[in-house]
Amino acid sequence: MQFSSTLLENAVNEFAKLPGIGKKTALRLVLHLLKMDAEKVVAFGETVIKMRQEIKFCQRCYNVSDADICSICSNSMRRPESICVVESIRDVIAIENTQQFNGTYHVLGGIISPLDGVGPDQLTIEALVNRVSKEKTEEVIFALNPTIQGDTTIYYIQKKLQSTGVRITTIARGIAFGGELEYADELTLGRSLQNRMPVESYVSHR
């Protein structure tokens, strides 16, 4: 692309760094911003900067939060004895949209994947084990993507939690193997949560 303005080119290059945004889409977004009122563009920029500088991660579950403890963990109407273990923040949002789960979450920050250089120490697994040991946890529900890496992570954490005596389950496989939770429709994901099974039964059939 040839640009008559270095400022325009720099802005396009920055937008193009976002996932799923190519140069043509980045150009369209930047040109749209140029058509907007200057005040609205400034407000947009300030919102993004404020989000990046001030957003926190919950000290209990590692979900995004405006405070040290997120709004889900601090909600007295939630069931703290039930913990849903997910890979990412996007999975929390997907499950919340089903309105079928009233417990709390634990965001691992990824899954065990040796080929990608991701080991257990790079995830929040130890924090989960400590949390289950210290809190009155009754059930740990695995809601990880149905992939080889997801299953490996379930198996590893299950072994780490065996001594706690906590009930360990996984969501039913209404989601196809190899699929991703965030792309599942809300009805399928909701039913998978409702029909969860003991993790031992799931592992033994794999």
Number of domains: 2
Structural class: alpha/beta
Q: Can you tell me the CATH topology of the largest domain?
A: Dna Topoisomerase Vi A Subunit, Chain: A, domain 2
Order of neighbouring strands in the sheet with most strands:
4-3-5-6-7
* Biggest beta-sheet profile: 5 strands, mixed
Give the low-confidence spans.
none
Features:
206 residues; alpha/beta; Helicase, Ruva Protein, domain 3; Dna Topoisomerase Vi A Subunit, Chain: A, domain 2; five-stranded mixed sheet; two-stranded antiparallel sheet; 7 strands
In short:
With 206 residues, this protein is an alpha/beta fold. Helix content is 43%, strand content 13%.
List the helices and strands and how they pair.
Layout: H1 6-15, H2 23-35, H3 38-54, E1 56-57, E2 64-65, E3 79-86, H4 89-98, E4 103-107, H5 125-134, E5 139-142, H6 148-161, E6 167-170, H7 186-194, E7 197-198, H8 199-204
Parallel strand pairs: 3-4, 3-5, 5-6
Antiparallel strand pairs: 1-2, 6-7
Task: Describe the structure in your own words.
- This protein is of the alpha/beta class and 206 residues long.
- It has two domains: 6-54, Helicase, Ruva Protein, domain 3; 79-204, Dna Topoisomerase Vi A Subunit, Chain: A, domain 2, CATH 3.40.1360.10.
- Helix content is 43%, strand content 13%.
- The protein has helices at residues 6-15, 23-35, 38-54, 89-98, 125-134, 148-161, 186-194, 199-204; strands spanning 56-57, 64-65, 79-86, 103-107, 139-142, 167-170, 197-198.
- The strands form two sheets. The protein has a five-stranded mixed sheet with strand order 4-3-5-6-7.
- Helix 4 (89-98) links the parallel strand 3 and strand 4 (103-107).
- Helix 1 (6-15) packs across helix 2 and helix 4 packs across helix 7.
- The mean pLDDT is 88.
